[in-house]
Amino acid sequence: MAWSTRELAELAGTTLKTVRHYHRIGLLEEPERAANGYKRYRVKHLVRLLRIRRLADLGVPLSDIPALEESDENAEQTLRALDAELKANIERQQRIREELAVLLRRPDLVDLPAGFAGNAAELSDTERSLLTVYSQALDEPTMAVLRDLHSTPRPPEQDEFDTLPADADEATRQRLAEAYAPVARRQFEEHPGLKDVAMTDALSNQVVLHGLVELYSPAQIDVLQRLNTLLEQTPPTSP
Question: Is pLDDT of 20 > 90?
Fold first, then answer.
């Protein structure tokens, strides 16, 4: 029994083009040819083609198949690496499904990074925008610290800061900075990762700074600067 290229492809559930591609990259050996020049594929070719298709369906890159077949050790390494990759993909997809489940219940949270749904109702529009910027500019450990921070009760000083009038006088700004200082110190002590905010790169640092300047009023920026000065004078204690 011998088959043509098209028949072999049909038996293996693939295409003529795919069979020719496997020939071209050396995965499938060329068969004998009949007197009329047509290829004559045998059972061994079908078995080989089915093996290639199975490995490809499992996610093994075609370029890795030759090395995988050299030894059991190579095969194990390749398959373990593939298994780890698939596990990571499954975990990622599970996280996405969990996020989608939240968004289906609360479509208004679509503009928030994952993990900040718990106190979304308390967040101002400015905070929502900043968190979105942070999610691209900060590394994941820092975002985890921010998620933890936002899971705690919101201090009243934060509400006052969010609603601070753009024309707030100097005395009001100084009073708010002084009132916020002990709160900020406690936050730094309870969340030490805040001291090591890590931008993904210089451009991200620029984006965050621009975000703060554009989203906060000059009065709010002034309060932040005053607060920073107070924290430098009496830094948070180490945990």
Answer: yes
The pTM for the full model equals 0.57
Name beta bridge partners: 52: none
DSSP symbol at 167:
T
In 121-205, beta strands by DSSP E: none
What are the residue ranges spanned by the domains of the chain?
5-57, 63-105, 109-233
> Could you tell me if 176 and 157 are in contact, meaning their C-beta atoms sit under 8 angstroms apart?
yes
Q: Which of the 8 DSSP states describes residue 41?
A: B
Structure-block tokens of residue 143 = 């975002």
pLDDT at 139 over 60: yes
Does domain 5-57 fall under CATH 1.10.1660.10? My reply is: yes
- Side chain identity, residue 164: L
Question: What is the structure's pLDDT at 237?
Answer: 56
How far apart CA 222 and CA 229 sit, in angstroms, is 11
CA 48, 53, 54, 55 dihedral sign is positive
The amino acid occupying position 232 is E
Interval 226-235: pLDDT, tens: 999 999 887 6
Nearest 10 degrees: Cα torsion 86, 87, 88, 89:
50
What are the C-alpha distances in Å from 238 to residues 4, 101, 150, 177, 231? 76, 39, 21, 22, 13
